[in-house]
Amino acid sequence: xxxxxxxxxxxxxxxxxxxxxxxxxxxxxGGQAVGWFVDQASLASGFALPYPLWAGxxxxxxxxxxxxxxxxxxxxxxxxxxAAGWTxxxxxALLAWLGLAxxxxxxxxxxxxxxxxxxxxxxxxxxRRLRPAAPADAPAGGPSAAGAAxxxxxxxxGPLLGVAAGLLILxxxxxxxxxxxxxxxxLAALAALAVGVLAAGLLHLRLWPAYDAGGRARRVLxxxxxxxxxxxxxxxxxxxxGPHLAVLPVLAAAGxxxxxxxxxxxxxxxxxxxxxxxxxxxxGEEVTLxxxxxxVPFWALVATGAAVVAAWLAGGLCAxxxxxxxxPVTAAVLAVAALVGAAGVHLxxxxxxxxxxxxxxxxxxxxxxxxxTAATGPAAxxxxxxxxxxxxxxxxxxxxxxxxxxxxxxxxxxxxxxxVNAVEVHAGPALxxxxxxxADVARVLLSPRLRPLPAPVPTVRGxxxxxxxxxxxxxxxxxxxxxxxxxxxxxVTVGTSDSGVDGAHPALASRYRGGDDSWYxxxxxxxxxTDHGGHGTHTxxxxxxxxxxxVAPGATWVGCVNLDRNLGNPARYLDCLQYMLAPxxxxxxxxxxxxxARAPHVxxxxxxxxxxxxxxxxxxVPAVRALTAAGIFFVVxxxxxxxxxxxxxxxxxxxxxxxxxxxxxxxxxVSDFSSRGPTPDGRVKPDVLAPGADVVSxxxxxxxxxxxxxxxxxxxxxxxxxxxxSARPALIGDIAGTRALLARTAAPISAGSPTCGAAGNTTxxxxxxxxxxxxxx
Length: 777
Prior knowledge:
Elements lengths: L7 H37 L7 H24 L3 H20 L10 H20 L16 H32 L1 E2 L2 H24 L1 H4 L5 H20 L7 H11 L1 H7 L2 H18 L14 H26 L6 H21 L2 E4 L3 E6 L17 H19 L1 H10 L3 E4 L4 E4 L6 H5 L4 E7 L24 H5 L2 H6 L8 E6 L20 E2 L14 H10 L11 E6 L8 H12 L8 H4 L8 E4 L15 H9 L3 E5 L21 E6 L23 E4 L3 E4 L5 E4 L2 H18 L7 H11 L14 H4 L6 H7 L1
Parallel strand pairs: 1-2, 7-9, 7-10, 8-9, 10-11, 11-12, 12-13
Antiparallel strand pairs: 3-5, 3-6, 4-5, 14-15
Pfam family, one: Peptidase_S8
GO molecular function: serine-type endopeptidase activity
Keywords: Hydrolase, Membrane, Protease, Serine protease, Transmembrane, Transmembrane helix
């Protein structure tokens, strides 16, 4: 038998629909991915793109999608092709509408989710007022009899199957993701529900009637493909930068389950649960290139892939169970089984509980330490550090009393600090406006906290052998010449706040000060020095390591973990700085059990606290000022956002009391990545330079590795100060004198181009020279 000929209109409709679908998928998925990578690259360079650009991007994407979709809706001959074009046009308009929520700053997730809910609900209400349109070439009397029977039978069973399918799609996020705070999680669920209702209204309006006639393949495969493209477009407007990249493919894959079930309740359940996973299970600010290896981006990608596969599987199951009509009992059993299974996976394999951000409340009245003696030398040091600590504790105890009473009355937990007169409140942003209205509060910052992972991040290790001679960078600062004179840093303790330290590393183990007050891990509570990230082991090795890698191998060290998976927050940075002023034993109270006499002499700080971690420019000013008043030398990295002028802006690098270090390479040229001044308040920075390119130092596991960055340059200067104070103990605690000596004896370095207004904004005083500094005394 000769098959019936395919009409030109039908063939043209198929080709046109496929071409417009491919264009839409490419524009939406490709544009959103490129936009995210550009956003991440700008953050890495220290120049964050204005977040309203995402709203503009949604509008631009919507226009690019709408133009061909409108042409398809108006020019195509088959009704199903026109319905596809109309649905995609409407989805593009909804993308532009939902994109308005991106006007909210990324860090304010609760406000974003609330606005997204309102926008989606308003759009869903508007669609509800429109009547579903039957296609012009549909059979007389509206949908087929089979379709009407199927719709009636699905009245109860459809939503239950939708719940079962949605929970199957949600399952990977319940296993691999982690929820934020209670309010944020609740708002994420509410926003997902609103998006689900909106999606059901969008697909119900013209798409389902146009694809109701014909066999099951047309109803599920053809309609599901068109629905998937529409949901892809809709998903581009649901979620902040990062999570929305997961929403896109998951919602697109859910189109087949939606097409199999069709009813509003069923589609709402499928889409809402599919969207809830990325919206509630991952923090947008953690989907970042700053978290490498098997961290949040990796697990978000795995969860997304698994959810897409689950959505395809759900579509197939729904297609089978919904034909010829779904059975309510079967649907109910599947829904209950899916709910029990989802709960079991989350509680047994996932990361249950809430893991939201906190608030960092900075009080208006900061301590005045001008009356503390500035006596120098080893004998005067314990009393000086103790006086600073006692003054800070007394002032904070008195001025925080009212705020603490209020928080206790509300039943809200908190952690008080004295190095900065501040309190970390264990509550989310909902409490922020209330606290900001207090007369004793200067400002309220976010204190982000990383959500837990389903598996630990693998430990970074080095595979290079121990150097057989002093590495080039140690020789460049003159450290080996000091060793020849018998000066190795003995009698000086260097404190490091970083990702941790591999305390068993052969280059560092024998230099650990020991005792019960030389290690603190506020992130994970480890009792012995450990490091998974490797950054802290590497930087400390340059400062005090043996095996020819450290500037001051005779000095001892103490450590604190202020970075977890390469990110921190104001409270964790302050935990470590406060510990360095007055170390305390495990489980001790910093307010009562601190030991100022055990404070390290020099602090090496290869970190910065940008706005994405919750800091503003003044967040840590009182802390660095207090450490300086105590006679503790504070060395900090300039940052790796050069050669842009004005890129030296992340606290505490811009502070007057910080000795800020830029980087040079083997040829004594300023490294391109080294951040330049001036600081935001116009100060000339960095202060000095040190080697920071291809620096070989210790890595976890006993090996060695080479790294670049001002992080690598900073411990050189901490080591030089340790050598200087070891050779000239009278300088201990003399911060101003030591800084002047380092600047006066630094070797000049050519600034090159750009000069950033003054050569010092690129080179500071020049390259530090340990031998010249000691000789000059």
